[in-house]
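Why Phage protein? Reviewers of the renewal asked for a concrete example.
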Amino acid sequence: MKVKIFCENDEPMNRYGYCKVPLEKRINDFIKDKKVIDIKYQANVSGYDNEYYHGSDLIERALVMYKEHENE
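Here is what the prediction returned.
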């Protein structure tokens, strides 16, 4: 069994702050030729605030457990 971790922030962002390639597409492209055992998903929202700026960040991650070949 092998694992691969996908993080939304690993992908380049467009000028609006969104990933150029959505997390779902990256995962679907990766697993199309693999035997998936399980996928774990996590989303984390972090807020920040000071006298000049406030906002929040959403970070999405997925852990894919898979086998490359049937004989692994």
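The mean pLDDT is 84. This is the kind of structural detail the renewal will allow us to pursue systematically.
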